[in-house]
Every structure is written in C-alpha cells, then in structure tokens.
Design goal:
The structure holds two protein chains of two kinds.
Chain A: E1 3-5, E2 9-13, E3 18-25, E4 32-37, E5 44-49, E6 53-57, E7 60-65, E8 70-75, E9 84-90, E10 103-108
Parallel strand pairs in A: 2-10
Antiparallel strand pairs in A: 1-3, 3-8, 4-5, 4-9, 6-7, 7-8, 9-10
Chain B: E1 4-7, E2 10-13, E3 19-25, E4 31-37, E5 43-51, E6 54-57, E7 64-66, E8 76-78, E9 87-94, E10 98-100, E11 104-108
Parallel strand pairs in B: 2-11
Antiparallel strand pairs in B: 1-3, 3-8, 4-5, 4-9, 5-6, 7-8, 9-10, 9-11
The chains are: A mainly beta, B mainly beta.
C-alpha cells in the first residue's frame, strides 16, 4: 500500500518563499509528481522527480530523496494566484497514481 | 486538441439509480484513471487502466465498475447509487504527466 503525508494548510505572504513537504511510503516507486489544483478546477501538472536532487522550473522547484521517502515543493516570489492546493503523488510501479490529501496554500497580501 | 473529455458535467441521481460517467481522451495515452474528490479532501483513486483490455482496482473501488475496450474510452459505471457517492469525479490520462478532465459533479439524493 501507500502512505502519503503532507501538511493540511499553510499560509504565506506575497513575495515570500514557501516549502511544502511530502513524505511517502510506497510498495513500488516510479517517480514523484506535484500537481496544483485551484478551487473548483481540475489538477494540473507542476513537476516530476525520478532521481534524487532538485529540479528547477521558473519560480517552482521540487526536491526528492528516495532513500528518505521525502520530497518538497519550493515556491518562490509568491503571487496571489499561487493560492491553491498542492498535491504530492508518488507514482506506483504498477501504473497506479495515488495522491496525498493535498496542502492548501493561502497567499496573503 | 480536446485532451480529456468528461460527460456529463453535472448530474443529480436518486438513491438506487445507476449511471455511466463517460471519459474520452484523444492523446493516445495508455494509462487512464478515475478519481473521486470529496469537498475539502484529496483525490481518491477508484480504478485505473494501463492499456486497452486491462483494468485494476484503486483505493476505493466498491460500488463502481469500469471497462476499457478502446485506448480512447474509459467509462465509469455506478450501480445502485448511494448518498456516499456524492462527489466530484475526475478522469485522467497519462503516458507521463497526467491530464485531467474538467470533472463531473454528482449528487445522490
């Protein structure tokens, strides 16, 4: 089975940096995905890590440590439009894609 | 380029009725998924498919059935609808990152 843990909610200030952590235990591992979901909308892909280390994509970066079962999403220069839920999803080796409960981020002026 | 198309967008069912949620993708993806998302909660995997003719149970399959006769289509069948099945249902497809449909908001009364 899979066990995925993320903080339920976070609050940050516009222009700041925020780090959203995710720990996971999976029976098989095929990379880790991060998705963004605005309220009332479908999730959209943000990043993917399959090897240990940091992947940077503009204001968003994602880090993975496979040995520790740990990932984080780093959001820099926060904007109001970044207020959303951020979903961590370790891909299973059988092709299943299980999501964590998500972290609801509120960005304040 | 339509991506992932779900129909209907909204539906109200009476207890005990049945219905099929339709999902079609035009990206020739092998993997397809059905999720449900209850208010304020994360995505729960109902069923998934790694290719035509192959389906497997996810985290919460009870009360649902699926089929995958073609690469494009992955319908979800609800038999004997119950109030506990009131939720937003998302279909997704992937060969790497998952693309989601816009969701079906289902209410069972």
């Amino acid at each position: 089975g899979q066990n995925i843990d993320q903080p339920t909610e976070m609050t940050a200030t516009e222009g700041a940096i925020v780090q959203i952590n995710c720990t996971y235990q999976t029976s098989g591992f095929n990379g880790l995905f991060w998705y963004q979901q605005h309220a009332g909308e479908a999730p959209t892909f943000l990043s993917y890590n399959v090897l240990d280390g940091l992947e940077e994509k503009g204001r968003f970066s994602s880090f993975l440590s496979r040995s520790k079962g740990y990932s984080y999403l780093l959001l820099k220069e926060l904007q109001m439009k970044d207020s959303a839920s951020y979903l961590c999803a370790p891909g299973g080796s059988q092709g299943n894609l299980i999501f964590g409960k998500g972290t609801k981020l509120s960005v304040k002026p | 380029n339509a991506g992932v198309t779900q129909t209907p967008k909204f539906r109200i069912l009476k207890i005990g009725q049945s219905m099929t949620l339709q999902c079609t993708q035009d990206m020739n993806h092998n993997y397809m998924y059905w999720y449900r998302q209850d208010p304020g909660m994360g995505l729960k995997l109902i069923y998934y498919s790694v290719g035509a003719g192959i389906t497997d149970k996810g985290e919460v399959p009870n009360g649902y059935n699926v089929s995958r006769s073609t690469t494009e289509d992955f319908p979800l069948r609800l038999e004997l609808a119950a109030p506990s099945q009131t939720s937003v249902y998302f279909c997704a497809s992937s060969d790497f990152e998952a693309f989601f449909g816009q969701g079906t908001r289902l209410t069972v009364v």
